[in-house]
Predict the structure.
Amino acid sequence: MTNEPMPNQTPALCASCNSTLQGEYCHHCGEKRIEPGKDLSLLAFLNETI
Ligand SMILES: [Zn+2]
């Protein structure tokens, strides 16, 4: 067994400036946090509405 530390969450990085996000928005450029899971559900939602 490996004994490597496994973080529950990968540190969110700003899509624009690659800064580590400390909240919902980037403190560096103000870009909103992008969550891949949300994007996928949004895509599915769009697919159903179209
Ligand atoms: Zn940023």
Notes: Helices lie at 36-49. The two ends are 48 Å apart (CA to CA).
